[in-house]
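All the exercises in this workshop are built on plain-text protein records. A learned vocabulary of local backbone shapes supplies the integers on the structure line. Once this layout is familiar, the rest of the handout is easier to follow. An example says more than a description, so a record of this kind follows:
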Amino acid sequence: MLTFLRRLCLAAMTLGAMCTPALAASTNQQTLYNSLAHAAPELNPQALKSALSAMQCAVNGGARQAQHLAVIDYSQPSTERRLWIFDLRTKSLVLRDLVAHGQKSGENFATQFSNNMGSHQSSLGLFRTQESYEGSHGYSLRMDGLEPGFNDRARDRDIVIHAADYVTPLWSQRQGRIGRSQGCPAVRPQVARKVIDKLKDGQFMFSWYPDQRWLKSSAYLNCRPHQVASILSTNNG
């Protein structure tokens, strides 16, 4: 597909025509996907494609370009390194590591997700990271959920990235899973500062799971430009 698009662009330029922005964007998106998929072969292709599509939809809707993208694949067990952080400029993998899910989302596998206060469940969809701060868990990172009904209560719920001692392979040896959070994507203390420093101040984080209601309803996965623009305007305001 990528070769075909490039040939089409070259043919258009040979004829003195401009390669359309949509075609160029599609080519760039495919190039980025190919590079990231090569860097992270264990990441579910559908999760990566969805993350890139949602991010591009947000950018097309007016969101600022990011330098880094984090993808959490909640279809994988907690004992697997299911958090990936990519550098979008170099199209490379920065980090792959463990990440916790909420206590009420499931045991080793997360299967239940919520946007509700007090649910102690993880949330799905596209997030925009914001400010780092020192809190009860030490150095932490706030973020805003961009998907109404699925994750837009993240800030009110105090869903943040933070270090947790229970995010360790030692827990999986005893419990058959790593420890669980109250809905936060908690990470190992050894990598927490790196994770937060790479993701703070306006990067994208995307949490994926084949939840049919979310897949069908997400304004970003289905890219509804007017709805996305309204969401981003409200979020930025």
